[in-house]
Amino acid sequence: MDSIGLFFIGASIVHLILVIFALKDLFTLAHIRLVGKVIWILVIVYPMVIGPLVYLHYGRGERSWNNKIHELQQRALEKHAENEESVDK
User: How far apart are CA 68 and CA 5, in angstroms?
Assistant: First the structure.
């Protein structure tokens, strides 16, 4: 395994340990109410979830932003050409 792979494995392990420690610590605190704990859980866990979801929704194959932008540009060019043809007539 190359050094980049080892780096990501190590970073993932450190990240997981920090998340577990933060969640364990949060649940041991009695002075934070349920709503506050739910908000803190979202703050702790949310970044781990949003990155993969954004990638899976926007970063793959036909659904990628580059392809969407390209399609929108093509549509705009086609509409522009149609408008020019109708003005010429």
Answer: 31
What's the longest Cα–Cα distance across the chain?
Answer: 77
Backbone angles phi, psi at 48, to 5 degrees: -70, -30
pLDDT tens sequence across 4-51: 889 989 988 998 899 899 999 888 888 888 888 888 888 888 877 776
Residue with tokens 């009695």: 30
Q: What is the DSSP string of 37-84?
A: HHHHHHHHHHHHHHHHHHHHHHSSGGGSHHHHHHHHHHHHHHHHHHHH
